[in-house]
Design brief:
The chain is α/β, with parallel strands linked by helices. It is built from 10 helices and 8 strands. It has helices spanning 12-27, 42-53, 60-69, 73-83, 90-101, 119-131, 146-154, 196-210, 212-219, 234-242, and strands at 30-35, 57-59, 109-113, 135-143, 156-159, 167-169, 188-189, 223-227. The mean pLDDT is 92. The structure holds BIS(adenosine)-5'-pentaphosphate and magnesium ion (MG).
Length: 245
């Protein structure tokens, strides 16, 4: 017998989920995960690699900041957590990610910048991709010593255009025109969670919750490590990452 799920007008979210599932089973999208501490250069390289591979990038932090900017209930809850350097709850995080991945643009896959960030999220991601016929092909770890991270975040400038979100560094990667994004000419700003006390808390959260992912993915045979300290320029890091594909 036929099972009618729902007409698009009755439950658009459910309809899109079913459509996406079918689509993913046919297209078998492939995903890349970026792991690294705050300021490791995940966002910087994700934008460049996305352009090179012609796949989109999903930054969990950017998705959350969008919720905050839109003043949604999730955004209000997140403001306190993010500004204290803590992680969002796993169920909420995976919910936001799943909703984003319903978009058509992920039909070939994408770069996951900032997801997963703990073992539980890694297991949830593995299950979700497997169920949908998609695959995680590589996990790239960005290895940067802590003193370099502190310097980077203290001088980071972020593009205010949510569709762009590129980052610059006042000293090491300055924009061509002061305070203006090279790519979309929007205004640059400093992220509130780049305040030194919050950065310390984010690093502590990374050490306890995210760093164990490195051994987890090494065991799965998916991990590649790229040196990305302050003596390795952005272009060298990008070349090293591209050579992995
Ligand atoms: P998110 O926005 O992802 O923050 P993060 O992981 O702390 O990482 P950053 O964005 O700060 O650093 P980046 O590695 O992208 O570095 P960038 O390229 O900008 O997440 C924010 C918050 O959201 C989290 O703290 C958490 O609360 C929450 N959240 C997110 N995901 C979650 C999840 N899965 N579960 C629960 N909660 C979650 O580079 C930094 C600077 O360095 C820039 O100035 C750049 O120009 C410069 N730079 C980059 N590369 C180089 C280089 N090679 N040499 C010199 N300078 C460089
Ligand atoms: Mg980032």
């Amino acid at each position: 017998m036929f099972v009618r799920t729902a007409y698009p007008t009755e439950n658009p979210q459910r309809f899109r989920t079913v459509l996406r599932s079918l689509f993913w089973i046919i297209c078998k999208p492939k995903f890349v995960v970026f792991v690294g501490p705050p300021g490791a250069g995940k966002g910087t390289i994700a934008n460049e690699l996305a352009a090179f591979l012609e796949i989109p990038t999903v930054s969990m932090g950017d998705l959350f900041r969008r919720e905050q900017a839109n003043g949604t209930a999730i955004g209000v809850l997140l403001s306190t957590l993010i500004n204290e350097g803590k992680f969002a709850p796993d169920e909420l995080t995976i919910g936001v990610l799943k909703k984003e991945l319903l978009k058509f643009k992920y039909w070939r896959g994408g770069i996951l910048d900032g997801f997963p960030r703990n073992i539980n999220q890694a297991i949830l991601l593995g299950t979700m991709l497997k169920e949908q016929g998609a695959a995680l092909t590589i996990v790239i770890e960005f290895a940067v010593p802590e003193p370099d991270l502190l310097n980077r975040l203290a001088y980071r400038l972020t593009c205010s255009n949510k569709e762009c979100g590129r980052t610059f560094h006042l000293k090491m990667l300055p924009p061509k025109v002061s305070g203006v994004c090279d790519h979309c000419q929007s205004k640059l700003y400093q992220r509130p969670d780049d305040a030194p006390a919050v950065v310390e808390a984010r690093l502590a959260t990374y050490r306890t919750q995210t760093a164990p992912l490195i051994a987890f993915y090494a065991k799965e045979g998916l991990l590649k490590t790229v040196r990305a300290d302050n003596t390795t320029g952005k272009d060298t890091v990008l070349k090293a990452v591209i050579s992995l594909f």
